[in-house]
Amino acid sequence: MFLFYSLALLLVFSVLTLVLLPVSSSKASGPTSLRHRLGMAGTVLVMTSVGYFSLGNSQLLSAYWHHEQMQGKVADMRAQLQSPEAVIQKLKGLAEQHPDNPKGWYLLGRLYFSTEQFGSAVQAFSKAYAITPDDNNTAIQYAQALFLLHNKKFTPKARHLLRDVPVSYTHLTLPTIYSV
Known about the structure:
- By secondary structure, the chain is mainly α.
- Helix content is about 80%, strand content about 0%.
């Protein structure tokens, strides 16, 4: 935001300089010189306005710069966390620091699931489900982890989890669970 206002201030001073100071030598005077300076000032203002509206307003530029900063942070985090186990350890620490955040436990369960650590996935999904029992995605992932942990057999707990999920979800997810 500071950069935006700095550029705007610089532009204002540039226009004022064109209008107040003579453009050519000291011989220039009269209406021709004044018309020339006003024409230059108008051209600068028009070009600046076109540039501003084509590049966006300060909010869009701020959002872009914020996005660029976040991309840099993500790249730094990727460099630090090169293996799935490192990511799991980092997320596990965050989930334990914030045990009431179901998203942390859910994401930890997904990571365990993706590395085929189904016992740990069941534990993580269990914690997420205990916090948000109405979340259909958590219930489905929890049931799928239970299914795979028990050699592709539905346990009573998995059946109970899927029983509460709306039909529209189960039509989409049951074939997925069976296909694993």
